[in-house]
Design brief:
By secondary structure, the protein is an alpha+beta fold. It has helices at about 1-35, 85-115, and strands spanning about 40-45, 50-55, 60-65, 70-75, 80. The protein has one domain (about 1-115): SH3 type barrels, CATH 2.30.30.30. It has 2 helices and 5 strands. It has a 5-stranded antiparallel β-sheet, with helices on one face. Helix 1 packs antiparallel against helix 2 (about 85-115). It is found in: Cell membrane.
């Protein structure tokens, strides 16, 4: 019986420390990609910086470099938005995420202590 409880406890801790934060991060990335708009400055997963020129479904046309070279990329290839106004929002959301993670860890430790 003790072994089953300890295994279940490990799964609960595993969920709160690994799975839940990963799901939150994936949701934030999906939301960021869904809310892209013309004029946003972005960085791709390949490290290319550009400004969104046009959006058509899941294909973005970005302008890159001094020569205003236009490149078509997939929406999923956007790693982050580098606009200054969005940076402050991203920093605030990262701080909120840290606070939620700390709260989740405290809750899981309290549950662990209550079961013992």
């Amino acid at each position: 019986m003790q072994g089953i409880i300890s295994i279940l406890l490990m799964f609960v801790i595993f969920y709160f420390l690994l799975i839940r934060p990963q799901n939150k991060k994936e949701k934030q990335i999906r939301d960021m990609r869904a809310n892209l708009k013309k004029g946003d400055e972005i960085i791709t997963i390949g490290g290319i910086y550009g400004k969104i020129f046009n959006i058509h479904d899941d294909v973005l046309t970005i302008v890159v470099g001094k020569d205003n070279l236009k490149i078509k990329i997939a929406r999923w290839a956007v790693a982050d938005i580098v606009n200054k106004e969005n940076k402050s929002e991203n920093n605030a959301s990262k701080e909120e995420e840290k606070q939620e993670l700390l709260q989740d860890q405290k809750e899981s430790l309290q549950k662990q202590n209550n079961k013992e």
